[in-house]
């Protein structure tokens, strides 16, 4: 048990903390590539600016942990508990957050290229201004999550739950929302060229002033959706249900 222990600036390459009790411990600026924190308890721990490339936090309990500006490329956080954790400005390309529980987590400005959040529970999480190119959110629960101004071309939100999510001014060119549940989602001024929204539930969603040439809304359920002022050149609404929609 090492609660409140201070490892700041330590060299911890390949160190093993699996199953350890590290509540409120400090790992500020540690160098810990490939370290193993699987199933560790690191709630409220401080890992700001830590080097954690390839580290494992699989099934760790890390609620309110602080990973601000940490290096987390290729890190594994699958199944971890990350509610209210902070990854603000973290650099985590190709990191695996699949099936993580991360409600209200903060990931503003983080670099998450090709990261996976498949089947993660991330309601009310804040990804504002994050870099999410090719990121995977398939099947994730993202109700009321914020994606304001994210850069997320080709991101995969297929079958995700993004009801009431905020995606205003997001770059979502070529992104997939196939069969997503996105009722009341806010895509105002988003870039959605070539995006795939086939079969999505978009009731009362807003695409006001969105730029979505060649987007595919076929078979989408979009009653009362708002698309005023949107650019929809060559877009497809074949077999969509769009009663009371406003174009």
Task: Outline the structure in words.
The chain has 247 residues and is largely without helices or strands. The protein contains no helices and no strands. The relative contact order is 0.07. The mean pLDDT is 98. This is Pentapeptide repeat-containing protein. It holds the Pfam family Pentapeptide. It comes from Phaeocystis antarctica.
Give the uncertain stretches in residue-range form. Answer: none
Percentage of residues assigned to helices: under 10%
**What structural class should be given to the helix and strand makeup?**
little secondary structure
Whole-Å distance between the termini? 61 Å
The count of helical stretches stands at 0
Shape category: elongated
Mean pLDDT: 98
Count every beta strand, where a strand is a DSSP E run of 2 or more residues.
0
- Please give the radius of gyration in angstroms: 19 Å
Protein name: Pentapeptide repeat-containing protein
Keywords: Repeat
Pfam family, one: Pentapeptide
